[in-house]
Fold each of these.
Amino acid sequence: MSITSPESVADVKHSLGRVGYLADEPAALVSFLAQRLGKPVLVEGPAGVGKTELAKAISRASGRELIRLQCYEGLDEAKALYEWNYRKQLLRIQSDAREGWEGVHDEIFAEEFLLSRPLLKAIASTEPVVLLIDEIDKTDQEFEAMLLEVLSDFQISIPELGVIEAVTHPVVVLTSNNSRELTEALKRRCLYLWLDYPEVEREMEIVRLHAPELDERLARRLVEVIHMVRQLDLKKPPSIAESIDWARALLLLGADELDAEVLERTMSIIVKHRSDIALVAERVGVRLGEPSVPSPQSSGA
Amino acid sequence: MAEPSALPPGLAPRLVAFCEELRGEGVAVGTAEIMDAFEALDAVPWAVAEDFREALAATVTKSQEDRRVFDLLFDRFFFRAAEAEAVRRDIREERRYEGGERLDLDELRDAIRQAIAAGNDGEMRDAARLAIAAFGRRGEGSGVVGVDVQRIRRTLGLTTSNRERRDGEPRLEREDVQAFERHLRRELERALVERTRKLPPSRPLVELDRALPTSPSQDLAAVHRAVAQLKRRLATLGHEQRGRRRGAVVDVRRTMRASLETGGVPLRLKHRPKRPRRPEIYVLCDVSTSVTSASVFFLSVLHALHDSFRKLRSFVFIERISEVTEVFEHERDFRAISEKISREGGVADVSGYTDYGRVWLEFFEEIAEDLGPRSTVIVLGDARTNGREPHPEVFARLSERAGRTFWLNPEPRLYWNYGDSVMAAYERHCTATFECWTTQHLEDFVNVIAGGARVPE
């Protein structure tokens, strides 16, 4: 697949749609800008609205390889940027003990002894890539500071080797669950995109895209129930992926009506906490007995 | 780098002026952001309203809160810019909406409900003009925009409740009705500008526009959103303190173990993980009438805290104090909690006015034994004693026993110690006091109790 820079926002929206990601207007626009301006994108939003999926979709749609850096507490340069393979260096020194220090010391800091980690891989790649830095809010602030060089200049300085600059401009997507405030410096370098749970209509489209055999009426009902559930004060509200799973489960079960009984049997697909399950059964299960589902607004906060 | 000339000549200074206004409202827009915005507008067809807005938003706003301010300002700024230009060049819209005179009220009502239910911006604007035209003809305009909006809305029966809905009519969502109100307001302002030939003075977004939606009739959902965010932050707070930190203690055993890999040379230092502070928290929440609006919010904060701290005991008080920890543990629904508290709390005695002095005495008697250096006491209240004895000395003893004492006051600092507020008497004995009437205040506070930021001691 050849890599082309998109012409317009509609283009991006279309190509994302083709690989199974229905982007709304802001998401399409920001993905477009990211590719045109070469700026990193910071995506925030609740868990399970498709932040990571967006990066994957851009990668699929643009034919770029996806390089992923999963962040966690205590992630450091050695695991994100590069590391000297000191075991190999040791072996190199021992294998040729007669050679003097001068001969060895240049050689052991050659690329041969460098272990590339995701960031270096993305920068050094000769093919254009999408770099996904997932859950950046899980790392500490020092790590963010280290990212700044990579994100604004697309280069990495390695003291022993010099500066490695990006050959091709990677598309960078950072995701955050907003569990802590990111630093201003990092935010300034990024385009900002807030993703929220989709509207009923768009979620319908998404569900039907991924479970096309599902009857339209049932799909609407399902999405409406999901929206009702999200209105409740749950420990973990159902994500889009869970709506899709649920739709598929209903297909497998051959359910043609979404009533209280079906809900009870399949509820564990959309809610994952014991107390949540009780709450949903109590609040939503009862409503499903009624002939028509009231809109989510009336279920109230 | 964008060529500024690619944009029409009038636009660049206007954009900069807009960013200036954003800065005025506390959104950190740097020169770098403005340049990004120009670059972005170069890449999108800026004549498409939505693309223009989103491109601008993506480059200059960097958080959800920024985005909210952006949305508030964007409409206002460009509306004013357009109107100012119209006044300057003396352009008037002579043709008002034409159908207005012929329609009777019922038809109008139906047309507008249809437009609102469809949710299309353009149609809603037309409907708003139609409504204004119709009401102008009936001579009902008051000249004050806010009053007119409400009057038109009432006459048209635009409510979200089902009661006034006739058969076959589409249901109206609250957001849609609000959107229609915005259009009404916009169109009324436009008409006013045309009539008076000048712009009303620009008003900064007052702090209150962004204050917590506290009164119960207001958007509880907004409180919940704020609290939900808080929950997430609380859940991870303290975690960032872990990991590699300067000043961490070296774990000798693990360092030696790791050195085996490198032939006994300790190349990698292993540190002892820092344990986050897990405080025992006592929350005392005033639920009397003087803080009614705030207590809804406070209760939901309590609710959030309960999810995040295992050792948390909560109390509510008016004239007496009563423990409600159990209620929070067994009930997850917020509304049920507040009902249960007002039913079973038994905190109001005779008058229903807060009696801080008596509350301290009771609290001291019951709980003082459990308080220790690890405990944190948080008081949520306005310190308005209604003229009763405040007993600051009892409060002082309480705060001596507890490790830390915080006071959250729902009133702006400006109002403290006026009237019957005795904040100063208590403030002396607190580790720190906070005004707490916006979500930002609340977040600052949460950072402190979870050990994120240091308090001046």
Amino acid sequence: MNLRRDVFQAIADPTRRTILLLVAAQSMTAGAIASNFDTARPTVSRHLQILTECELLRQEQQGREVYYHFNADKMKEVSDFLEPFRKMWDDRFNKLEAVMKKYKSK
Amino acid sequence: MERKTKIHAGEGRQDLTITREFDLPLSLLFKAYTEPELVEQWMGNKVLKLENKNHGGYQFEIKDVHGNILFSANGVIHQLIPEQKIVRTFEMENAPFPAQLEFLEFEALTDDTSKLTMHVIYRSVETRDQMLQLPFAQGINMAHNRLQHITEKLK
């Protein structure tokens, strides 16, 4: 399923993860989001576009401003939405296992 | 390859269970949680404090090359039984997520293999679901050095 691949690709990027984290805590305008990064504004806009295209972010007009919201339902729609969480722990525990095997052989 | 790490998260509950079988003897698995130099290697953060005892505490931190703090977390160790159990809290500093309670149980499967069962309890169903949806929120990859200031502002 394309949707699923897109969501996982979207969260594979550290800047996009940071954006999601920011917006999950509080809806923000593109300008407010960009002001938190040293990277060029168009780069941040591109990230916002990708996140919006895969529907992890929703845009909402409020007066003259467009606010970005985190769309938590999108993650739930993905059939295996636990997978990123599981993968994070799996990577971490793989590291633990590797570190301890090296430690044992010393 | 078989998936060794399993997550059980019941719908509408505020807890979850993470289990993992290791190709390591129990003593080494437990050591990975209690030796600061080893914790630093697999967790990828500095260990400022790690008191492996009942009523102890711990403090982790990640700084960038300029000395800015990217991630900091702390907790209290409620109970520690060597090679059996650690009960502790975990809280990220300057982040909009409440503390969580963690029960870590260590057991030997064979002489060379072991198992960790981690039962995590969140403040609410909503907090747990947010953590599941934003796994990276748990401070693994705080890629940006200004995130701390940002989250501070959001509080």
